[in-house]
Amino acid sequence: DTEVTQTPKHLVMGMTNKKSLKCEQHMGHRAMYWYKQKAKKPPELMFVYSYEKLSINESVPSRFSPECPNSSLLNLHLHALQPEDSALYLCASSALQGPPTQYFGPGTRLLVL
Amino acid sequence: DAKTTQPPSMDCAEGRAANLPCNHSTISGNEYVYWYRQIHSQGPQYIIHGLKNNETNEMASLIITEDRKSSTLILPHATLRDTAVYYCIVRVMGSGNTCKLIFGQGTTLQVKP
């Protein structure tokens, strides 16, 4: 099973709202990732977690706050977002031994009004 | 970071082989070549990866030149469902043995009846 699940599928939020995106995998992977994809652009890395610890932050604004509560779950907390943050948010996971092939979830499509 | 160059778009007739080229002339000796595809509004799907040797799986074949400066993804019998954006990526190692994927613009493959 190479499934990564993400909830919700769609999210509409105002600029003053607080919301969270959730990602889950049960492949035993110890690396998890958040990517952001704007329309007609390739995905861009935001954060990487390794053994539940943040290992890479690609200079993402603090209004995005990642959290990895355990090895299967990855959250992205959103607060005071801007309309330009509207995008497809993708989660991925990979093993930390051998070729670290990343498996992606279906994404959460976020619209900030 | 090794970069990749792909043609922006290609067409292929249904049932014929689709050959997608990728140049990665600055690839390092320990970097893998990965191929993903993304069907409209879905998460990227892993296809195949390779280091030096040619590889084949149930989805595709990967041909890597001897000098490793270029590769070709082959879909042997393209179907309409193979219409997608195909990304050729050289794996960049992050910290903690994680894998930072840097997506280029990809090749939009249109399979036509």
Topology of helices and strands:
The complex is a heterodimer of chains A (113) and B (113).
Chain A: E1 4-7, E2 10-13, E3 18-25, E4 31-37, E5 44-50, E6 53-57, E7 64-70, E8 73-79, E9 87-94, E10 103-104, E11 108-112
Parallel strand pairs in A: 2-11
Antiparallel strand pairs in A: 1-3, 3-8, 4-5, 4-9, 5-6, 7-8, 9-10, 9-11
Chain B: E1 9-13, E2 18-23, E3 33-38, E4 45-50, E5 55-56, E6 61-64, E7 70-75, E8 84-90, E9 92-93, E10 99-100, E11 107-112
Parallel strand pairs in B: 1-11
Antiparallel strand pairs in B: 2-7, 3-4, 3-8, 5-6, 6-7, 8-11, 9-10
What does this structure look like?
Chain A contains no helices and eleven strands. Chain A has strands at 4-7, 10-13, 18-25, 31-37, 44-50, 53-57, 64-70, 73-79, 87-94, 103-104, 108-112. The model of chain A has no long low-confidence stretch (mean pLDDT 94). In chain B, the strands form three sheets. A five-stranded mixed sheet of chain B has the order 1-11-8-3-4, with no helix packed on it. Classes of the chains: A mainly beta (113), B mainly beta (113). Chain A binds chain B through residues 2, 4, 31, 33, 42-45, 48, 50-51, 53, 55-56, 88, 90, 92, 94, 96-97, 99-107, 109, and chain B through 32, 34, 36, 41-46, 49, 51, 87, 91, 94-106.
